[in-house]
Specification:
mainly alpha, 2-methylcitrate dehydratase PrpD, 13 helices, 0% strand, globular
Length: 291
């Protein structure tokens, strides 16, 4: 657990400590859990290894029990390799990575909830391709994951990371808001740029509903991981360019909480509204579900 009540407090505490943001988050984690630095680092390394293992264990032939998920990650990778992809190599790799991880989750493989299982594809989809393309070592990726964890804890404390409580903005939106500052860190950005990246990522997906077909974390969840990864990339790039969130980051998160409370219950992981209520969606609804 990382004990920060707001982004403003996290940045202020970091400035006073004289430590890099990631390391201040690490110190806070150790103090909160009563563990040694080496123990915290080892836990984070294990999570990074689990992300890599899930990515490497993907098979395009795997299909989920429902039949709704499987093979799309392989299709995207093949399209990217064809040389005719609309997006560049790096972006195509990110898209394929997000699909792979979402499908691994749907096929009951081991994944890292970051911050949730339904949003598990966003963080690895940006971090792993970044490392492959730009040569970031394990230590740098672990630092980036601490940055993501710090922002994630503020999001959880001030708003929510639960689709049932706050809609998909709380899951995919939070994942993007964690991945964006992690990318800024990898690019050598400042804590203020990380905070702005987080805020812009949240704003871009504000109000996103949670409407899983059949109550399953597959449709539209897997493909929303792609949107979350793209959101993280764009927010990070804007922040690195010096673009700021006009609305202060903490106020953005407060707005996210308020919007989440305003979303109808049918659009908060109940499987009763949105895409889940379409004729297609109703085919996968449990017989006793009143949609």
């Amino acid at each position: 657990m990382i004990d920060f009540s707001s982004i403003e407090q996290m940045l202020r505490d970091t400035e006073q400590s004289g430590l890099p943001l990631w390391e201040n988050i690490l110190v806070s984690d150790c103090e909160r859990q009563g563990i040694e630095r080496s123990q915290s680092l080892e836990k984070m390394r294990r999570m990074l290894a689990a992300m890599r293992q899930a990515d490497e264990s993907y098979s395009g032939g795997d299909v989920s029990h429902s039949g709704l998920s499987g093979g799309d990650g392989a299709k995207m990778a093949a399209y990217a390799a064809s040389g005719s992809a609309l997006c560049g190599d790096f972006v195509s790799e990110v898209i394929a990575g997000a699909l792979r991880m979402g499908e691994c989750n749907a096929c009951m493989k081991r994944i890292v909830a970051a911050p949730t299982a339904g949003a598990c594809g966003v963080m690895p989809a940006v971090l792993l391709p970044y490392a492959r393309r730009f040569g970031s070592g394990e230590d740098k990726l672990v630092e980036a994951m601490y940055v993501a964890a710090g922002f994630g804890m503020v999001l959880a404390a001030k708003a929510s990371i639960s689709g049932a409580e706050g809609g998909c903005q709380a899951e995919i939106g939070s994942a993007a808001a964690m991945a964006a500052p992690a990318l800024v860190h990898l690019e050598g950005g400042s804590p203020e740029q990380m905070a702005n990246a987080c805020a812009m990522a949240v704003k871009n997906l504000l109000g996103l509903v949670c409407d899983p077909v059949g109550g399953l974390v597959e449709v539209p969840c897997v493909k929303r991981n792609v949107i979350g990864a793209m959101d993280a990339l764009s927010a990070a790039q804007m922040a690195l360019a010096g673009i700021v969130s006009r609305v202060p980051p903490d106020q953005v998160i407060d707005a996210m909480a308020e919007v989440g409370r305003s979303i109808p219950h049918t659009l908060r992981e109940t499987g009763k509204g949105g895409l889940a209520a379409t004729p297609f969606g109703q085919r996968f609804a449990p017989q006793n579900m009143n949609v």
